[in-house]
Amino acid sequence: MKKLTLLLALSLAGVSSFAQTTGPVGVRSSTDYDAGTSDSRNTGFGIKGGFNLADVYGDSKKNFANSSNSKTFHAGVYGQYGFSNRLSIQPELLYSRQGFQGTSTNTPTGGTATTVKDRRLDYLQLPVLLVFNILDNVSIHAGPQVSLLTKVTEDGKERKIANEGNIYGYSYTSLDYGLSAGAEARVGPARVGARYTAGFNEIIKDQLATSGANALTDIKNSVFQVYLGIGFTQ
């Protein structure tokens, strides 16, 4: 968690430095969109995608041996509505592959012990962000996010999200929610940014062993993202 926070801070500093070298404040060429039909320079839509550095946090993380982050990706679309040249709201629809690596062994009642190392969790996500331009071509953003789990892969094998009969000894939570915050720079219609999202819902539920060294339930999503995008006028 501390490493991700430091990485986010360094990335945001780099975004700001990059943006300030692209031109003076107030130059319209640094905006996302052409004038179009809107009086606001912050109204339009676009596409985006980039890199995920995904991990988990929580008390149960210590129960996973040799834990490490997963290097994955995200992609999607966004819309933006500007209230002014400074303030706008930006909903997004993203496909995001997340997860983590860490060895754990679970033995369901009357079942066989299962050891898992690599978990991949595919989400369909809806962030709704409040965007504020601190400079003409640099903005900060923050807001809530909800995520729907669409696919689970353990060590390369797809498994059902629902755990009928608790045959694995645990199941995955289909809905996640959390907060996102970050910053981005704009150069013409292009944008580059960095963001950190912390999930607040537990990833694993209905586990038979809910305490001690085998507990897996208290882990939550933690994702750092770097992305590129391009915006279009409405």
Automatic annotation (TrEMBL):
Residues 41-204 form the Outer membrane protein beta-barrel domain. Keywords: Signal. Residues 1-19 form the signal peptide. It comes from the Bacteria. InterPro entries: Beta-barrel_OMP_2, OMP/PagP_B-barrel. This is PorT family protein. It comes from Hymenobacter lucidus.
